[in-house]
Amino acid sequence: VILIKSLNAPLYEAVRKYASANPVPFHMPGHKLGRGFPKDVGREMLSLDVTEIPGMDNLHAPEGVIREAQELAAKAFCAEKTYFLVNGSSGGIHAIVMALCKPGDKLIVARDCHKSVIGAMILAGVEPVYVMPEFIDDFAITGTVDALNLTRAIELNPDAVGVLITRPNYYGICSDIESIARTVHAHGMILMVDEAHGAHLCFSDCLPKSAMEAGADICVQSAHKTLPAITQGAYLHVKSGKVDIERLEFFLDLLQTTSPSYIIMSMLDVARCIMAEKGTGLLNNLLNGINSLATLIDGYTGIRLLKEKDVSGGSLDRTRIVINLKEFGRTGYETEAILRNDYNIQVEMSDFYNIVCIATIADGAAELEYLGKSLADLNASYSTKQPLPDKYVRKMQLPIQAMELKDAKNVKYIKLPLNKASGRISRNIITPYPPGIPLVCPGEIIMEEIVEYIYNIIKLGGKVNGLSDDMEVFVID
Ligand SMILES: Cc1ncc(COP(=O)(O)O)c(C=O)c1O
In the structure, which protein residues have their CB atom closer than 6 angstroms to any atom of ligand 1? Predict the structure, then answer.
């Protein structure tokens, strides 16, 4: 028998230690440390880790139980066809872009996209046409994609294959997808939606409509983010004759492992079942709890909840709790650490001015009440009463593209210290993580304002991907 204590397994130990401290987790995965699963599902988890033995079907050519589970999912999520993904929405986004675009094709992309969209366009050899989303000054975050801006991009690029938007964004902000779908389809293009954060939307009328309900042709959803499913579990949904299914299946087969985890796939099945049978009631209970929390927060001076009235031309997923700290006087990074250390609450992410909590059906009234009480206490005990300066974030310009995205990966590059990188062409995707929205993409010029922004993030406690350990930047030689 191997004694756990004798194992040198630092990752396992760190995860166990975190879980055994019994934290209040306002972060993904949406099952919240197993609390959202029926008890016996958690216990039997490891015994579900099987392979393609008789009766277990095959993800790459499903004709048995996987096919049945995918068909049930398609029905529950209002799609015509659903595929289980075992490498998150990232893998699905790669497959969508590779299936729908050929090398040299143009794709119109809202720039607040996740790095996997950039990765997909590199893999597919696509030429991106970016549309900048709105900027919400008070929160210093990106907002909706304006249908008029999008129409302009479509009219200027009638040869583009389609449009890819992120909806909801990390802050729960939902662009007006119905009018976007009408515009995109009127021009004969395909609407692809990164709905990684919106797998729960179609189960409550009190939430914005899902992409499949609102007219999108194809989308991905990270079940693991907002449903009781485990990390990496995601769905790809199709609802359109415009998608070449055989080409899509070809790329899904190419890009996904030949040993898909039956634990992940079984949990995708369970998540669908829970949501289809009980999702509406559970979400409406959750939204009632969030309404009470919102009333409490409204009474606190210093911290402010993101509300639908802050979002122009769109709607808000209210299960995403975004709290602005500008008047409170401490950055999101600092506040996240205080909540973790003093209140045993772990939020999903923070930025300069905000913290973001993900609430799912696995959260009960007790967790929301505890969050409300802790915020009251935090507000009373830690406010500096000095508003945060405006200087950390402002609306940024789209970087100049000096080299095509698809070409930048193959040219010679060097590493330069960040303070010498201004004006050079980036070879990497540079992105604060979370949320994973790129500041600079391969082939783009690293502007001085971006260098300054990266320094600020790191100085104030955030993390940036795409640099070397010594804060060097990969630039084209
Ligand atoms: C908007 C968005 N899209 C896609 C992804 C990738 O999802 P996954 O982690 O399931 O691969 C993320 C991950 O955070 C995301 O925020």
Answer: 88-90, 114, 116, 166, 170, 194, 196-197, 222, 234, 435-436
